Task: inverse folding
């Protein structure tokens, strides 16, 4: 492994630690003072029973939106640096971009794809709530659409990303 | 008719003094409200438990707490017959005074910031009325009846993180006063609610509308205020 590659791996590990740390802080703050229903087996029963309880999906979408937003932003910071290598160190750029073909990196890219897709579709959902004046039920319908699109496009994109590994 | 039952329910209560008992096995009655549960604990298990209530008919907004995380009025929330355990906590995002009792000051500070009372336009013919079938009344009526219980504030996810946000109750109140043609402070209020700590802080978590014990929809009020900012308030 070259020095440029080692530095990239260390920086990527830093990004992952930051993302996990952000998720941990967010979840513990939500559990402490988020004001939402606690996750328990009883909650599953109540979700089936009452539309008011199902409004909680909007809350979880909010947390997922923040988490995916932070994850995409953190990686983007690193990605700007590794892309900009091309302007002043093309050799290092080539070395670093070999890493994007590693299986572990491809798995990371799949996760990133899911994060980008969810953040995009959920962001559009939030815009639609204002434009179309949508209440809780309709916004949950749109959330279902956002999740379905994320899963379908994410699986399709992941198949493309992982294809060279299985070729 | 209240029926005694041989069933027991396991109640876990958030206590502020670490030395006090937190879990109680309470005899069930049918039907049983959450407030009945607390009164039973106070009478039969631990008289020192701290909780608050007054009217017992969902009018005063004093008994708000969280059941399994969700803000409720203890006096009007029944325990489902098949439930065998429950967890009770104080409202989120407000300083705990003791056990289930919180200090509502942060909530009422936000409430006060929107001038939650009518400032009459000068020269109105008394009594100034808004016709029941008028569009204005259609906006105002569904948003009345707030009992300032703080359930929406606790469920907001933004307001209860102690960020600078007016919160759902204050915004709902501001919306109905802005809609009221007898009110002279509408423009000033619209400026206040569309400032950086106003409607834009809402991320449509819908916790407020989902938990409001009076069936109000503060999220709809917030969407309306955002529209009025662009289109001007209705007149
Ligand atoms: S005791 Fe008054 S609202 Fe519950």
Result:
């Amino acid at each position: 492994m070259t020095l440029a590659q080692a530095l990239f791996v260390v920086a990527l590990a830093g990004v992952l630690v930051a993302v996990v740390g952000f998720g941990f802080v967010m979840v513990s703050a939500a559990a402490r003072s988020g004001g939402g229903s606690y996750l328990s087996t009883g909650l599953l029963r109540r979700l089936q029973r009452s539309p008011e309880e199902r409004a909680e999906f909007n809350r979880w979408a909010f947390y997922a939106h923040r988490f995916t937003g932070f994850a995409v932003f953190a990686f983007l910071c690193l990605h700007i640096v590794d892309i900009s290598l091309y302007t002043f160190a093309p050799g290092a750029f080539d070395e670093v971009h070999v890493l994007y073909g590693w299986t572990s990196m491809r798995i990371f890219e799949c996760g990133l794809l899911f994060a980008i897709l969810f953040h995009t579709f959920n962001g559009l959902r939030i815009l639609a709530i204002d434009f179309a004046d949508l209440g809780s039920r309709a916004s949950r319908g749109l959330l279902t659409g956002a999740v379905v699109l994320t899963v379908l496009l994410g699986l399709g994109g992941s198949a493309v990303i992982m294809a060279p590994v299985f070729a | 008719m209240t029926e005694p039952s041989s069933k027991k329910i396991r109640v876990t209560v958030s206590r502020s003094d670490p030395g006090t008992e937190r879990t109680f096995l309470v005899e069930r009655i049918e039907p049983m409200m959450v407030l009945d549960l607390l009164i039973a604990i106070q009478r039969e298990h631990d008289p020192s438990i701290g909780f608050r209530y007054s009217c017992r008919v969902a009018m005063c907004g004093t008994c708000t707490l969280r059941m399994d995380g969700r803000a409720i009025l203890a006096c009007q929330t029944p325990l489902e017959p098949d439930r065998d355990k429950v967890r009770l906590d104080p409202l989120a995002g407000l300083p705990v005074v003791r056990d289930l009792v919180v200090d509502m000051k942060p909530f009422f500070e936000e409430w006060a910031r929107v001038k939650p009372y009518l400032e009459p336009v000068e020269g109105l013919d008394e009594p100034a009325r808004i016709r029941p079938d008028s569009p204005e009344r259609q906006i105002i009526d569904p948003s009345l009846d707030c009992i300032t219980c703080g359930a929406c504030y606790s469920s907001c996810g933004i307001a209860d993180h102690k960020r600078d946000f007016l919160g759902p109750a204050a915004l709902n109140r501001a919306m109905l006063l802005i809609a009221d043609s007898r009110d002279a402070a509408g423009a000033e209020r619209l400026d206040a609610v569309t400032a950086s700590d106003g409607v834009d802080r809402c991320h449509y978590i819908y916790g407020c509308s989902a938990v409001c014990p009076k069936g109000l929809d503060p999220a709809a009020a917030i969407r309306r205020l955002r529209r009025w900012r662009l289109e001007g308030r209705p007149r």
Remarks:
- Chain B has a mean pLDDT of 90.
- Residues B 53-56, 58-63, 73, 75 surround FE2/S2 (inorganic) cluster (CB under 6 Å).
- Residues 3-102 of chain B form a domain with the Ubiquitin-like (UB roll) fold (CATH 3.10.20.30).
